[in-house]
C-alpha cells in the first residue's frame, strides 16, 4: 500500500479529544473504524455525492449517512422546505398537517401499509413492531435471521451465525437471557430451517421478521422463492410476516423491497430515507393490526418528538423527489455500473470477490462466493477489506468502514463519480496482495 498522503491532522485532534468524552469517541459503534483499522475521519460538510472532512479533504460518499441521503446530500428542495418549516419552530408535541401528508405518501407507496405510526429511529420502529406482533397474535416467540439487524433493542440482540444463536443467548452483556429466550434464529435464505422452527414451536410463533434484502451482513439479496416461501409458511402457521425495510424502504424501489419482489408482508418497518436525513422511523401495516396501537387500541407506544414537523418535511420532500419519473432506473444504472466495474477490477488484479446491487444499494465481498447467508459472508478476507478501505480513502472515496455493511449511491452520483471510483479501485487493488 502506498504511504499515507491524506492530511488528517484536525480529524486526529478532534477524535483524540472525543475518546475522552464519549465511549470509543463516537455516538454509534461502526463509525469508530474498528473493523477496518486506522482512525475515523471527522466530517463537517456534505453536498450531492460528496463529503468533506475537517482538514478539507473531499471524498465521493457511498455511505450516504447510512442510507437516508438517496437524493444526494443537502438537496436544495429538501433544505429549502426545511428552512420554511423551521421558521415556525421545531416541534409541537401535538398533531401537525405534515404527518398526514407523509402518512398518505407512505400508505400509497408501500403495498402492505394501510396505517402508519411515526417514531424517531429504526430501532424504535422494530422494537414497537415486535410488541405489536406479540399483542396481535398473543404469542411470544419470533423468528429472526442470522446477520439481520433490527436495531439495538434487547430482544433482537441475539448472536448471529453460531450454535448459541438458536438457544437465544444474548449478544451483549446487559441483555437478560429471559429477554432473548423467545428470539429464535435461522440462517438467511434457509426456508427449511424456518419450517423446522415452526414445527418445533407449534402455535407459539408470533411472526417472522427479516430484512427482505439484507444490508447488515453486507449486501445479500433473497434467493428466488425465499420471500414467497416465508409468506406461505407464516400464513400456514397463523404467524405474521414483517419486513424490516428501514434500509430498503424507498431505496430498492419506491414501494420498497415488497413492491420489487411482489411479496406483501403483514407489517413493515421504515426509517432512514423517509426522514430525508432527520431522525425518523415508522411502522405500519394491515389496518386490523395497526388498530391495536394506542390510543386506538391497547398496545402502548409513544414518543415526545414523534411526527415532528421538521422530520416530516424532510421526508415529504425526499419522497416527492424520488417519485419523479425515472429515478429508480437511474439509481439502477449508476449502481450496476459501479459494482460491475469493481468486480472487473478485482478480477483483473487477481482478487477473489463477488457482489451485486439492486437500485441504489450495493455490496461486494472479498471472497469467491456465492454468498447466500451470514456464514458465507464471514468467509470474506476482512483484513484485505480494511486495506482496501484505507486505500480508497487515500484516493478520495468514502466507503462504509466494514465488510459487512451495504453501500449506497444517490441521484447525485453520476458517471464522473463512478468512473473515478473504479479508477481508484484499480490503483488500490493493484497494490494489494492477492
Ligand atoms: N433495521 C435495519 C434493517 C437497519 O439497517 C437499521 C440501521 N442500520 C435499523 C433497523 C436500526 O435503525 P436506527 O439506526 O435508525 O435505529
TrEMBL record:
The keyword Lipoprotein does not apply. Its cofactor is pyridoxal 5'-phosphate. Keywords: Chlorophyll biosynthesis, Cytoplasm, Isomerase, Porphyrin biosynthesis, Pyridoxal phosphate. Its EC number is 5.4.3.8. One of its GO terms (molecular function) is glutamate-1-semialdehyde 2,1-aminomutase activity. Belongs to the class-III pyridoxal-phosphate-dependent aminotransferase family. HemL subfamily. This is Glutamate-1-semialdehyde 2,1-aminomutase. The lineage of its organism: Bacteria, Bacillati, Cyanobacteriota, Cyanophyceae, Desertifilales. The gene is hemL.
Amino acid at each position: 500500500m502506498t504511504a499515507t498522503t491524506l492530511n488528517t491532522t484536525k480529524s486526529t485532534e478532534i477524535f483524540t479529544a472525543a475518546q475522552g468524552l464519549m465511549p470509543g469517541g463516537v455516538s454509534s459503534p461502526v463509525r469508530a473504524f474498528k473493523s477496518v483499522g486506522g482512525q475515523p475521519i471527522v466530517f463537517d460538510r456534505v453536498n450531492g455525492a460528496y463529503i468533506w472532512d475537517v482538514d478539507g479533504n473531499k471524498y465521493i460518499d457511498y455511505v450516504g449517512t447510512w442510507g437516508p441521503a438517496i437524493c444526494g446530500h443537502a438537496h436544495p428542495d429538501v433544505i429549502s422546505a426545511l428552512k420554511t418549516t423551521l421558521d415556525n419552530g421545531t416541534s409541537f408535541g401535538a398533531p401537525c398537517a405534515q404527518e398526514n401528508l407523509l402518512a398518505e405518501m407512505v400508505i400509497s407507496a408501500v403495498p402492505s401499509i394501510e396505517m402508519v405510526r411515526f417514531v424517531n429511529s429504526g430501532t424504535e420502529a422494530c422494537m414497537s413492531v415486535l410488541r405489536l406482533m406479540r399483542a396481535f397474535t398473543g404469542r411470544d416467540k419470533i423468528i429472526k435471521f442470522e446477520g439481520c439487524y433490527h436495531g439495538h433493542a434487547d430482544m433482537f440482540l441475539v448472536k448471529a451465525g453460531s450454535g448459541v444463536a438458536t438457544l437465544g443467548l444474548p449478544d451483549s452483556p446487559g441483555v437478560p437471557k429471559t429477554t432473548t429466550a423467545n428470539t429464535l434464529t435461522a440462517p438467511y435464505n434457509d426456508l427449511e430451517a424456518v419450517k423446522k422452527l415452526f414445527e418445533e414451536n407449534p402455535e407459539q410463533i408470533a411472526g417472522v421478521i427479516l430484512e427482505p434484502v439484507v444490508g447488515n451482513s453486507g449486501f445479500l439479496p433473497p434467493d428466488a422463492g425465499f420471500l414467497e416461501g416465508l409468506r406461505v409458511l407464516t400464513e400456514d402457521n397463523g404467524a405474521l410476516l414483517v419486513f424490516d425495510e428501514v434500509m430498503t424502504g424507498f431505496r430498492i424501489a419506491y414501494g420498497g423491497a415488497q413492491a420489487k419482489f411482489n411479496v406483501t408482508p403483514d407489517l413493515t418497518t421504515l426509517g432512514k430515507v423517509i426522514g430525508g436525513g432527520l431522525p425518523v422511523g415508522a411502522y405500519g401495516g394491515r389496518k386490523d393490526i395497526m388498530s391495536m396501537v394506542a390510543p386506538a387500541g391497547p398496545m402502548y407506544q409513544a414518543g415526545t418528538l414523534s411526527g415532528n414537523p421538521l422530520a416530516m418535511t424532510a421526508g415529504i420532500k425526499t419522497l416527492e423527489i424520488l417519485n419523479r419519473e425515472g429515478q429508480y432506473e437511474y439509481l439502477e444504472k449508476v449502481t450496476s455500473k459501479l459494482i460491475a466495474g469493481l468486480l472487473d477490477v478485482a478480477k483483473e488484479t487477481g482478487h477473489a470477490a463477488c457482489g451485486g446491487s439492486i437500485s441504489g444499494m450495493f455490496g461486494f465481498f472479498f471472497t469467491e462466493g456465492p454468498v447466500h447467508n451470514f456464514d458465507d459472508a464471514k468467509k470474506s478476507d476482512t483484513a484485505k477489506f480494511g486495506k482496501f478501505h484505507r486505500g480508497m480513502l487515500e484516493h478520495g472515496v468514502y466507503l462504509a468502514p466494514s465488510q459487512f455493511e451495504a453501500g449506497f449511491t444517490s441521484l447525485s452520483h453520476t458517471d464522473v463519480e463512478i468512473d473515478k471510483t473504479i479508477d481508484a479501485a484499480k490503483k488500490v487493488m493493484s497494490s494489494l496482495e492477492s
